[in-house]
Amino acid sequence: MTEAILLVGGKGTRLRPLTVHTPKPMVPAAGVPFLTHQLARARAAGVEHIVLATSYLAEVFEPYFGDGSALGLHLEYVTEEEPLGTGGAIRNVASRLHSAPGDPVLIFNGDILTGLDIEALVDTHRTTGADVSLHLTKVADPRAFGLVPTDGTGRVTAFLEKPQTPEEIVTDQINAGAYVFNRSVIDTIPAGRPVSVERETFPGLLESGAHLQGMVDSTYWLDLGTPHAFVRGSADLVLGRAPSPAVPGRCGDRLVMDTAEVAPDAKITGGSAVGPRARIGAGARVDGSAVLEGAVVEPGARVRDSLIGAGAHIGARTVLEGAVIGDGARVGADNELREGIRVWCDAEIPAASVRFSSDQ
Ligand code: GTP
């Protein structure tokens, strides 16, 4: 049996800033809590037992996912009293694993959306006899990431901090946040204190001569660290660019939940998801956006690349572009909100109060 650990804790796991009440892993992406996609993809790759390692609000996961049987999984939950970092969180759940010392254990960062071939990563791990195998992805601009160079056989040669100068960009390969650990390696991580896998565990393993294998898989990959990325990820799931067996219904230009009401002449495009009991008024346009449960978009509003939180209200003719509107917020008619604006949960913006001008 293959088992996995899913890391869903840490300090930055809510949408930053707190514009949506729901913690990020539970914010719907393409109609279901984001975490569902990761769980369903792991299940499809043959994983049966998953331990969710969290450091906050475990009570939001368990009532929804329960014992995991609805997804064909056996799910367990472990909550850290204080965030233990990625490595500490992995070590903290070791006692819940059933694997024998030489068995492979999958580990996934909880905020990554990817089409990674999970079985290929496990195969790579087995055939190379590595202690740890890592999914690596190539990015166009590696400056914001720690770099992971490999030799001709794919063996990892170093873990480099974010490059500060062009000379330090020695590779475009970065850690993509999915690993296979030999069970015995997990037991070597120190217990009871914060440990970072990238800054402590991996460099320490390299130094001790362990075999760390990189597998470059240039499939769909997106770090959902920002609300904007989250909206992009949701749209890509709906469009079918990001593969997930958990998208309800067929992939296409839009996903409208059964109980949503969409005016016949409203245009929903670009992978937009319209949640249950949401309403989209006459002539409104919603493109590449996520409209969560019970939110209302009044007639003539134009919404692009935006997240509208549960129960939020967008007034007539209002324009939203790259906006994040918190749960329950009310944006009156005839406003124009653009370029990364974030409206707090339950905040109110009166009609015709805000317009945007770049003065360019
Ligand atoms: P460290 O490697 O510990 O320094 O964390 P990081 O800040 O590099 O990790 P990042 O923020 O990229 O998070 C990667 C994944 O690990 C995300 O899914 C987080 O939710 C999760 N995570 C980060 N820190 C913790 C933690 O303290 N506990 C748990 N359970 N998960 C964490």
Topology (elements, then pairings):
Blueprint: E1 2-7, E2 28-29, E3 32-33, H1 34-44, E4 47-54, H2 58-65, E5 74-79, H3 85-92, E6 104-109, E7 112-114, H4 118-128, E8 132-138, E9 173-182, H5 183-186, H6 197-207, E10 212-216, E11 221-223, H7 227-239, E12 254-256, E13 261-262, E14 267-269, E15 272-274, E16 279-280, E17 285-287, E18 290-291, E19 296-297, E20 302-304, E21 307-308, E22 313-314, E23 319-321, E24 324-325, E25 330-331, E26 336-338, E27 342-343, E28 348-349
Parallel strand pairs: 1-4, 1-6, 4-5, 8-10, 12-15, 13-16, 14-17, 15-18, 16-19, 17-20, 18-21, 19-22, 20-23, 21-24, 22-25, 23-26, 24-27, 25-28
Antiparallel strand pairs: 2-3, 6-9, 7-11, 8-9
The structure holds guanosine-5'-triphosphate.
Guanosine-5'-triphosphate is lined by residues 7-10, 12-13, 53-55, 80, 83-86, 89, 109-111, 196-198.
Question: Would you give an account of this structure?
Answer:
By secondary structure, the chain is of the alpha/beta class. It has 2 domains: 3-223, Alpha-Beta Complex (Spore Coat Polysaccharide Biosynthesis Protein SpsA, Chain A); 253-349, Hexapeptide repeat proteins (UDP N-Acetylglucosamine Acyltransferase, domain 1, 3 Solenoid), CATH 2.160.10.10. 18% of the residues lie in helices and 28% in strands. It has 7 helices and 28 strands. It has helices at 34-44, 58-65, 85-92, 118-128, 183-186, 197-207, 227-239; strands at residues 2-7, 28-29, 32-33, 47-54, 74-79, 104-109, 112-114, 132-138, 173-182, 212-216, 221-223, 254-256, 261-262, 267-269, 272-274, 279-280, 285-287, 290-291, 296-297, 302-304, 307-308, 313-314, 319-321, 324-325, 330-331, 336-338, 342-343, 348-349. A 7-stranded mixed beta sheet has the order 5-4-1-6-9-8-10. Strands 12-15-18-21-24-27 form a 6-stranded parallel beta sheet. Helix 2 links the parallel strand 4 and strand 5 (74-79). Helix 3 packs across helix 6. The longest helix has 13 residues, at 227-239. It is globular. The N and C termini lie far apart (60 Å). Guanosine-5'-triphosphate binds at residues 7-10, 12-13, 53-55, 80, 83-86, 89, 109-111, 196-198.
